Amino acid sequence: MIQHDFSTFLDQYELGVPWEIAAGDSGMNNTTRIVQAGNNRYVLRIYNNHQNKSTVLLEHEVLFGLLEQGNRHFDIPKPVANRAGQTVTEAKDGKLATLCHFIEGKRPSVENISHIKGLGIATAALCKGLNAIRPQGEPIYDPYYKLEQSYEAISIPAMLDIASEAGLLPEFEEQVVCLQQERELLQNDLKSIAELPRQWIHGDLNFSNSVARGDAIVGLLDFEFCTVDVRAMELAVVIVDLIDWADEGQLERIALFCEGFGSELRLTAEEASGITLLLKLRMLDVALHFMTRWREQLDEAAVLQKIVIQAAKIVKWTGSNERHLKALFLELLAGVDRPL
Description:
This is Homoserine kinase type II. The protein is α+β, with helices and mostly antiparallel strands.
């Protein structure tokens, strides 16, 4: 685990009282700590995956654009300015950090039907909010449909080579080949995916990046990967969570999420019917991302193994249920009746 001197960052803020640190949920890309300063609580995030200030400033530009909208149904992180009036704080070694006001609540549960439907409603509201903002900064991250440009260094044959180097073969050869085949099939669909309606999206919205109080979804977090992409990808990222959580009941949970989303915002029929492709695209992107991380010696082989198994499982399940899923998406998201 990366060690940090938190005072390097926190001493640059005018908190008014002594502060204390408590552990927070940290991801692979950052270190997160809860900061208690008197009666106020904050979240300190230290970026471990880059030292690019413009990336964080774009994230903040998106956040402030949403914060200016007065009709939000959910809270989002509100960055705190340091003594220099900046919302990005830098350590002497170049590490970057931000401090945001804490959003009270807990992580929602995939077992709670109110949370599932509520996250659908919140996702739709976020889509509407993001469609209304006009950040001056250019997107940092490529859209998902530019998969081949993003992972040009990992060809389809190279996927098996990397798996072999990581010791995943022969035990997990079936899963790697499944992903290779799906990537090959998607080549013909990337152009049509790129033609779907595009806008700013969160890009990594899921249950772990949300906050619930009681049965309500009250907060959405971690806008680090926001970019301009096809709008329907916002839903696909959440739906992957619903597929991955258990081995049964996926369709019922997906329907609940779509009911919530569809009650607030309608997609076009082309968007709705394209979500099955986006589910596969999301998992291929995740698998290639972690192959890259393994190549760069950022993760152990066990991490890549887990991702490959998960990605192949979701791709296979989506393919097996594609007809049912398309009908569900068309009905609940685009208002197209299912055929009798």
